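User:
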Amino acid sequence: MRAVVADGSGGPERLRTVRVPVPQPAAGQVRVRVRAAGLNPVDGAVRAGVFGGGDRRLGFGWDVAGEVDELGAEVSGWAVGDRVVGLHYGPVKPLGTHAEYAVLDASALAAAPSSAGPEAAAALPLSGLTAARAVDLLELAPGASVLVTGAAGVVGGLAVQLAVRAGYAVTALAGPDDEALVRSLGAAAFVPRGAAPAAPVDGVVDAAVLGEPALAFVRDGGAYVGLRPGAAPAAGRGVRVAEQEVAADGAHLARLVSLVDAGELTLRVAETYPLEEAAKAHARLAEGGTRGRIVLTVG
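Assistant: Predicted structure:
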């Protein structure tokens, strides 16, 4: 099968599409025929060597949308041909979902949205689970004021929608040209990047990883949730500081899929590239400024 790899870390030029054996599912695993796979910032970080890896071969891809192709032993609840989405967890791995086939634990899968094609569905797993875990960690009463930084990004935009659904009064912090976008996602108020909210908020979901500046927006005794493990600022003023750590969770992903199909969660795809143009996709990701997920498609 075809798979995107890099023999050691570096820039997008290190990426190439190679032929590798089709992976075989072990007990409790499912092989998925990949139709689309999201390209996330973590993939760029893996390629750049942020997580190590040395000169060994690196695979890419956490998100997957496709069909069940083969079941490992002791797997129930799935059948060959089922349309699924899933999260292939792990930064440094020899193969990810940027390939024709991917093997995942059965517990990492959920039925794909019936209302979305594979390209849009592939934008859900990592971003959706990250945003959902962050909003859950706020643990505030309905009606609480919540600020989402980086609200125009994929994770931030999903966090806005999920926070609104949780009953919070949401203020979105984003670029000055993004007000219409974040308000369309449900934000009741808008703060342009570089400014501060008019009054301290009960909680912050720091999708932009601002750190200390975002913590300063929180009232004494409020809550701050960081989205990058290990990057949260030190607690103070009685503010509860938490960090989300994403995990492959098919049951939680299934709940997010139901919100997509109910029209309560919007999936945004910025651009698509065929698998063979992964280097171009990585270069585009590095440029920044997208307002949706970059997705690789697999024929």
